[in-house]
Design a protein that fits this description.
This protein has about 100 residues and is α+β, with helices and mostly antiparallel strands. About 35% of the residues lie in helices and about 30% in strands. It has one domain: Alpha-Beta Plaits (2-Layer Sandwich), CATH 3.30.70. The protein has a 4-stranded antiparallel β-sheet with strand order 2-3-1-4.
Length: about 100
């Protein structure tokens, strides 16, 4: 199953993220290496949110990532939520429909 971790970011996120970016990216790449995180990045124009795509049997992995994310701990993320995403089209779709 796929899970979307969605972040709402502080208005001055771009100005404040530098201090925490290396630690955040280390966490993200570690999740990639474990096969949990597929894609991630901030939304653009405006940069007011971010989306991280996880795969797993439950939302637990995405929730654990958020709870430990340096951006969340530093207050750059004002709110986060995890949603199950039923993917039906594409090479990695978990429920392909033709």
């Amino acid at each position: 199953m796929h899970y979307l971790l969605m972040y709402d970011l502080v208005p001055d996120y771009l100005e404040r993220r530098a201090t925490y970016r290396d630690a955040h990216l280390q966490c993200a790449w570690a999740a990639v290496a474990r096969g949990e995180l597929l894609l991630a990045g901030a939304l653009a124009d405006p940069t007011d949110g971010a989306v991280l795509l996880f795969q797993g049997d439950s939302p637990d992995v995405a929730e654990a990532f958020a709870r430990a994310d340096p951006y969340v701990l530093a207050g750059l993320v004002t709110h986060w939520r995890v949603r199950a995403w039923t993917t039906v089209v594409g090479e990695g779709a978990t429920h392909p429909v033709r």
